[in-house]
Design goal:
This protein has 257 residues and is an all-alpha fold. It has 10 helices and no strands. The longest helix is centred in the last third of the chain and has 38 residues.
Length: 257
């Protein structure tokens, strides 16, 4: 019975996803027909799908470049974000100075930071990884730090009565209880990670989906631009789904996952 219920939920989710996709494609085509839009402004869905079919080798090559940047930046950003949250929770006095600095840094627009990163780290993968790391870092650090701060007071009081010290409380109580919030931050960061990589590629690169978009847009190859956008969206969706699938293995005790 549990297996059948899980299969039904999966089929329902797939059908819902397909319905949404078909609906969006129909709306896309309707906008073109009703607005009488030329192909170079908004290409038909079938033209974009045809471009994916004919240029799949090139698109796959560029998608893999962007995917490597996303994976590296996401991993580094998640590690640094979680470490910053733990540091702030472990040493509250230090956190009072660190957190305002992080908030100020987060307020900088990514398009302002990206050219500086290209200048500092070059046109290779490093600047894109750093850009992705920055975008991933803040939601992870913010969500995890909030989870570490909001431990149930009754649980904290019970642990203190049992003789738990500050760092024992952090290790055995606050960290496990805050894992759902950590994954909430990772869920937010997952679809944002491709944005960081692509913004870096737009500013300066020699490969990737963002680089392909810039080159195709300059040549009025709108079908290629939209094909790259669809593949990037697919990467973002799959990345978010991977985080959703990983969460239950680390938070089995939580009903949220």
């Amino acid at each position: 019975m549990p297996g059948r219920a899980g299969l039904k939920r999966t089929l329902s989710a797939v059908l819902t996803f397909l319905t949404i996709v078909i609906g969006l494609l129909a709306l896309w085509q309707a906008i073109i027909v009703l607005g009488d839009l030329p192909r170079y402004i908004l290409p038909p869905p079938l033209a974009v799908l045809a471009k994916i079919g004919t240029a799949h080798a090139m698109l796959l090559e560029e998608a893999l470049v962007t995917l490597r940047e996303i994976l590296a930046g996401f991993a580094i950003g998640a590690v640094f974000g979680a470490a910053a949250a733990i540091l702030i929770s472990a040493f509250p006095r230090i956190g009072r100075f660190i957190w305002p600095v992080l908030v100020v840094l987060q307020s900088f627009p990514v398009f302002v930071i990206a050219p500086m990163l290209v200048l500092w780290f070059g046109f290779g993968i490093a600047s894109k990884v750093v850009m992705t790391t920055i975008i991933v870092f803040f939601p992870v650090a913010s969500s995890f730090a909030d989870g570490l701060r909001r431990t149930d007071p009754e649980v904290v009081a019970a642990a203190r009565l049992d003789g738990a010290g500050h760092f024992e409380m952090l290790r055995f109580i606050r960290l496990p209880l805050a894992l759902p919030q950590l994954f909430s931050g990772l869920r937010i960061a997952a679809p944002l990670a491709p944005l960081g990589a692509v913004v870096g590629e737009w500013v300066g690169s020699a490969g990737g989906l963002g680089f392909l978009m810039v080159q195709a847009n300059a040549r009025m190859q709108t079908e290629t631009v939209f094909a790259a956008m669809l593949i990037l969206a697919l990467e973002a969706v799959l990345f978010r789904k991977a985080v959703d699938l990983a969460a239950p293995f680390f938070t089995r005790w939580s009903h949220e996952d």
